[in-house]
Amino acid sequence: MNETRYISPETQFCELKQPVILESGQVLIGVQVAYRTWGKLNPERNNAVVICHALTGWADADQWWDPLFGPGKALDTEKDFIICSNVLGSCYGTTGPTSVNPETGCPYGPDFPRITIRDMVRVQAALLDELEVAKVKLVIGGSLGGMQVLEWGVMYPEKVEAIATFAASGRHSSWCIGLSEAQRQAIYADPYWRGGYYTIEQPPAAGLSAARMMAMCSYRSWASLEQKFGRNKGADGNWEIVNYLHHQGQKLVNRFDANSYITLTYAMDSHDVSRGIGDYDSVLASIQQPTLVVAIDSDVLYPPVEQEKLAQLIPNAQLGWLNSPHGHDAFLIDMEDLNAMVVNFRQSLDWNAANRDRSHLSRIWRVDN
Amino acid sequence: MNETRYISPETQFCELKQPVILESGQVLIGVQVAYRTWGKLNPERNNAVVICHALTGWADADQWWDPLFGPGKALDTEKDFIICSNVLGSCYGTTGPTSVNPETGCPYGPDFPRITIRDMVRVQAALLDELEVAKVKLVIGGSLGGMQVLEWGVMYPEKVEAIATFAASGRHSSWCIGLSEAQRQAIYADPYWRGGYYTIEQPPAAGLSAARMMAMCSYRSWASLEQKFGRNKGADGNWEIVNYLHHQGQKLVNRFDANSYITLTYAMDSHDVSRGIGDYDSVLASIQQPTLVVAIDSDVLYPPVEQEKLAQLIPNAQLGWLNSPHGHDAFLIDMEDLNAMVVNFRQSLDWNAANRDRSHLSRIWRVDN
């Protein structure tokens, strides 16, 4: 890591008073949560909107989701009290492998426990308790963020009024687990990995970079890369796509921790909203909140067939199609379209609240874009 | 490499009398070609069928394409003189990085020159000259094999009567180049890579295995892995998909050379039938042979849109759809269906030869399966 990981000066930090009991039974004490807020919590303390970020994201959601922020936008800075916290296990200020273990005085490193999506959500819920938020109007996020959104819906049915999940599944597929594992193995192949006990000066840069290159391909699509790079070569005689991937690999090495990458990909692989509590279909059927499921037609990681099934299984779900050539990452690229879908969804929620009639939501409808 | 790479006792070896002048201008002397033949060359010496194998394939095509072999099959062992040779740059008996460089007395290793698909085809053509084959009735192959097939069509219009390419493109896409590069970087990240100067006892096993895991995912599809493994765990508590990928990774380490993997993936990235000779559309339009293009509907590497364009650009092409959940590798899995398509194609060739009318071939038609 040659650069400091950027955390904006507006970032706030909360040390949770209670220990966090992980799903594994392990206990984390002194958990710190890095978070940002926008807008004001109303006197009723019921206008919170929770943003859940993706794998290598962080709390400064206005940086990576700017077009969704503003008056009248998906994230209404005038009406909402918007909160985004860095997830447990990450390396942007919330407790994770780079944090000091209060029991040993040393960074956790590879000894940071295996965590799950539910553990991430519990930490977010604990933060909201510290902020004395009574109700959450909406939980919203894509990819790993979307997995958290679904767990929010299942775990906190009384607290959460609506959820919006983009390019995510109710349980991680075999295909996604396989791609995660190949990426982890590339990191482990790096001699600087040292079983996770690497130094800040000598991280497993080559392995993490190779993992990121692999991941970047999976975040895009054949058509997207063909359109952007084709078989063009740069001034150095290399394929432009190769230079692009090296650039992306190096960027991630500069801003992300390999142990966090391992921790978070394992958490994604563990993702299954029904784990230990029932069969998959029934658990999704138990989600009562109005739900927006946004599927990306060119997503190779969470393909249309999986998104359609997800929307079918959640009783009050709307399925919106983000038609884009850009693949999985479209929720971070085609943001104007995404914003429009969320605005539309939120307007329908307001209309229903005013009319006390949710019957027209009890079926799937399409927000073709 | 803990196991000897299997080469059947029926394999024959031919040392080319002429030096091979590579597209790069470099010259290889004493090139050896490992090959298998089935059936007999007829007195007219015009019943040859050339099989081109995929990335990690080898000359024993009857082992990996058994359902296509036999009387009345796609590869008719009674009528055809079938030839399959290991490609230049591979490690199954044809000259490649593991071969001894006659100029130095040492294995080429990473100093083996960069080669192209055209170089592979030139070596195959030289073998056919040594065998005094006058005409080739059909060149057939999938993936890297399909790239060779297309180059055969462009490079030897007088010698080749028909071509059949499966799950391949006329030029390697940005997407495929990106996935190749990520795999190479995983190999380079391994400390045993040593710039390619590794020993037989200590190959870059972890890196090559990680590369293979990544590749295996790309050879299948979301649906294929979901159907086969889902979220099942093995007796060891690991995901079945993870165990499967580790098994596949180790298998490749046991049977393949990392420098060959690098050499052949670079060759695939170089693939463009129009390179240096014209624009892409015109070069494909110059292919006059009857052509069977088989597209796999679930192929993420060479997706339907690319296959359709390929078939549209080749004047005498038929487009056949291999509808399969298995992704790119379907040409090695759904072999009965593939066989039926090739048999059908060859019957149409025979019918046309008998009737001296190829007009009905001058359009694209679909062999839906």
TrEMBL record, chains A, B:
As recorded in UniProt, its EC number(s) are 2.3.1.31
The pathway entry for this protein reads as: Amino-acid biosynthesis; L-methionine biosynthesis via de novo pathway; O-acetyl-L-homoserine from L-homoserine: step 1/1
Keywords linked to the UniProt accession? Acyltransferase, Amino-acid biosynthesis, Cytoplasm, Methionine biosynthesis, Transferase
For this protein, the record's Pfam families field holds: Abhydrolase_1 (PF00561)
**Coiled coil (residue ranges):** none
Tell whether Phosphoprotein is among the UniProt keywords: no
Q: Does the keyword Transferase apply?
A: yes
Query: In which domain of life is the source organism classified?
Result: Bacteria
Q: Which reaction does it catalyse?
A: L-homoserine + acetyl-CoA = O-acetyl-L-homoserine + CoA
Q: Where in the cell is it found?
A: Cytoplasm
- A GO molecular function held by the record: homoserine O-acetyltransferase activity
Q: Which family does it belong to?
A: Belongs to the AB hydrolase superfamily. MetX family.
Task: Please describe the quaternary structure of this protein.
Answer: Homodimer.
Stored HAMAP family? MetX_acyltransf
Role of this protein: Transfers an acetyl group from acetyl-CoA to L-homoserine, forming acetyl-L-homoserine.
* Name of the protein described by the UniProt record: Homoserine O-acetyltransferase
Q: Which organism is it from?
A: Laspinema olomoucense D3b
Q: What is the lineage of its organism?
A: Bacteria, Bacillati, Cyanobacteriota, Cyanophyceae, Oscillatoriophycideae
